[in-house]
Fold this protein.
Amino acid sequence: MNNPIYNEYRRSSLFGALLVIALAALGALVHYLRSVDDNVLQRQARLTAVSNQLDSEFAPVLAFMQAVRQAANIKLAIPVAPIDDSLLLLNIADATTSQQPIMADGGMINPELLMLKRLQPYFELVIDTQPHLVGMYYFSEQGFIYNGLPKWSDYVVDQLLLWQKQAQDQGFERDQIFYAEFLPDQAAVMLPLYFEDKRLGSFVFAVALEPMLAPMYKQYKNTEFMLLDQTGKIISSSTARQVQSINEHLLQVQRLNSMPWSLALLEQKTSLFAAGVKEFVWHWFSYAILLGMMLLAMQYRYRRRTLSPMSRLLIHIKRLHSGQSHGVRHVPVGWDEVFDKTFELTQKQRSE
């Protein structure tokens, strides 16, 4: 005889298995979305911490630059005094270097050269006092460049004059001006120098960006940091390695306070996706195992408490119908009344 209870049991078992798979997938998806959100928040917190650290490291550099310009204004305000000395200057027009006397043949003092002579300690100590600065230059409106060193390198001269031709004229800008590209592997900050509302020249400070980011790389290993300029273009001197394609990375950006640039954190899209899939599969298996064990436990209980007693009841009815007076010997727990009622109905049917 086809037992409808067994058929319903098989259909319920199949439905329960499908439900286990669906619920496991749903739970794994929720965990995956939460983990992605947590990863984004974690990267944002890391980016904020690094940007604050970068601002704190660059603040003394900016303070030193401002101190140099302030000292230059003070030196210019000091009354000139005769001095028998000269400075090694780089002529922008013909790229030649020459010793230029501070006092001309007519006895006239060049206040700008005298100011540079008085600032010589700043030129000599800039690299020692500010580890992120790798050079200090003065570009004069008179057409020369001064770096405070006793000798000019031909390579530096060529690169410096090339940059000077490509640099945009900032007009009457009085505040600091940032340049993402200066000499190779260097950025620059320019501070225009004005005296009595007349522009005399500009101090240019060469900045090494990669060493500035080195402590962050050491603290956050396997993380790619870089700087973006005002237009969002990657500053090449700020990267520890060449990034082949920005489209292959996830990019998070944090604006810096000490400079008009932004700090970017890059992460491979493929690695993030692979990690997400791995976590999704792990959670899916975990939920599937737990829900599957619960389904098996419920099936076991249903077989013990329903299917097995029902099977014995059918055997009991069959035996009573075949003439056996008592049917089955062992009645399942809780089914006594059902078995007794079946026995009474069978006896009543016989008596009639």
Remarks:
- The first helix runs from residue 4 to 77.
- The mean pLDDT is 81.
- The chain has seven helices and ten strands.
